[in-house]
């Protein structure tokens, strides 16, 4: 390409030549470039001088290509055609990138909370093409560049707070009914006959605020371990046992009655928060911020409903989360 630039006075002359050859007319080529016909003639004359051969035979019937002109026209048509295709491809990729919103979220959160709202989300943001990167286990950091990701962190004004980290013991209504309709945190008969569904990423001591610290109490029960939290919630919904339900994941199931609190008024408030963060360089994209706000508003409705059911603290006072905070820079 450097050699070509040195061979020609102006690479623009190739574009002018291609248009004149395609139309068979200097006048029509001039209209394409919105310049005068004499300017087209000067560009062609300069190109002929650079090449050292005439490219057109001028006459009353228009401009006709010489043998040299036909050779150059074939080369410029092929080259410019390939350039045009590349430009179109890059533009399409740019448009796709502009409209694509990458959401890196917990598999359990998407399966149990977001999927039922996906149609409403798509209707609210018809211009957005959503791409979900699902995380099966406990996330400790966010890899790559994504528009929105959930991460449990200490309470701090970074990103957008989706919900407080509140953990509620949950089970199906059928499981509750099979065990007398109301479970006690300290059943007289001990924990024999009960099944607990445990996320293997966590130590069993995470249950201590609910069950107490007695190893005997835990040993009397049946424990099933899972590496995927979405599977735990599905098993609890199917009546297989009691699970620890992160409120931002199970709030919709509690509201609908698919799950119920295993013990009324018993939950763990860790003091941490579930945040929506952007890891792209620079400020959060407007469409990502709007989607995050939409998610926060829907989540606030469910958290308020869960609090009325005795399945979480009354931390929200309005239709939208008052704890939502935003910052303009991205999270490194």
TrEMBL record:
Q: What Pfam families does the record tag this protein with?
A: HTH_1 (PF00126), LysR_substrate (PF03466)
Alphabetized, the UniProt keywords read: DNA-binding, Transcription, Transcription regulation
Q: Boundaries of each HTH lysR-type domain copy?
A: 9-66
Recorded hits in InterPro entries, A to Z, give: LysR-type_TF_proteobact-type, LysR_HTH_N, LysR_subst-bd, WH-like_DNA-bd_sf, WH_DNA-bd_sf
Output the SUPFAM superfamilies linked to this UniProt entry. Periplasmic binding protein-like II, Winged helix' DNA-binding domain
Q: Which family does it belong to?
A: Belongs to the LysR transcriptional regulatory family.
Q: What is this protein called?
A: LysR family transcriptional regulator
Which species is the source of this protein? Answer: Pseudosulfitobacter koreensis
């Amino acid at each position: 390409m450097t050699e070509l630039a040195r061979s020609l006075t102006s690479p623009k002359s190739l574009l002018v030549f291609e248009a004149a050859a395609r139309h068979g007319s200097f006048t029509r080529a001039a209209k394409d470039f919105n310049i005068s016909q004499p300017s087209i003639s000067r560009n062609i004359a300069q190109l002929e001088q650079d090449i050292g051969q005439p490219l057109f035979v001028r006459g009353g019937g228009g401009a006709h290509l010489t043998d040299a002109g036909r050779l150059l026209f074939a080369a410029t048509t092929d080259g410019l055609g390939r350039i045009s295709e590349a430009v179109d491809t890059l533009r399409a990729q740019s448009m796709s990138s502009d409209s694509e919103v990458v959401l890196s979220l917990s598999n359990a959160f998407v399966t149990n909370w977001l999927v039922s709202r996906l149609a409403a989300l798509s209707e609210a943001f018809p211009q957005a093409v959503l791409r979900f990167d699902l995380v099966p286990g406990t996330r400790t950091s966010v890899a790559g560049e994504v528009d929105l990701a959930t991460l449990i962190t200490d309470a701090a004004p970074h990103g957008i707070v989706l919900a407080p980290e509140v953990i509620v013991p949950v089970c199906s209504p059928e499981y509750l009914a099979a065990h007398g309709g109301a479970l006690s945190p300290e059943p007289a008969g001990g924990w024999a006959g009960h099944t607990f569904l445990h996320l293997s990423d966590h130590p069993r001591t995470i249950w201590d605020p609910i069950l107490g610290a007695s190893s005997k109490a835990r040993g009397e029960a049946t424990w099933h371990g899972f590496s995927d939290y979405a599977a735990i919630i599905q098993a609890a919904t199917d009546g297989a046992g009691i699970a620890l339900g992160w409120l931002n994941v199970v709030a919709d199931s509690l509201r609908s009655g698919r799950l119920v609190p295993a013990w009324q008024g018993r939950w763990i408030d860790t003091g941490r928060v579930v945040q929506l963060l952007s890891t792209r360089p620079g400020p959060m994209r407007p469409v990502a911020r709007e989607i995050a706000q939409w998610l926060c508003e829907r989540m606030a409705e469910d958290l308020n409903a869960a609090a009325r059911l005795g399945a979480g603290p009354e931390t929200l006072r309005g239709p939208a989360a008052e704890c939502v905070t935003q910052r303009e820079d991205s999270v490194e």
